[in-house]
Amino acid sequence: MTIHCRVVLHPPRRLRCSTETFRTFVLFTDLYSTFMETKEKTRFDTRLSKEQKDYFEYASRLGGFKTLSDFILTSAKNHADQIIGRHEQILATEKDREVFFHALLHPKKPNARLRKAADRYKKATGQK
Questions:
Q1: What phi and psi values does residue 16 have, to the nearest 5 degrees?
Q2: Number of domains in the chain
């Protein structure tokens, strides 16, 4: 698969490529600038097989990343965002479930307005 894209960084700053490539470019530049803004750097080392490294380098080139490190960091960040998003969604769901069942198991007593509304409903429907 070949992606043809022409990027002109001098005025008028035009980007000519497919919409998906543009989204990838914008996402990459946003993530890259976020990563580069951090002042303190740490190191992360890992061992890969030759096949894995070749595979990741191929994907990195197809994605238009400058280096394999940029590709790995961006991919790891995207995957981490997905995992954290699912986790936070589950936590919100658990909190909602807790509130819902607490309200079911410990209902509040009806106030005067609710009792009057129930009386009006009973009169209107002919119930006692």
A1: -115, 105
A2: 1
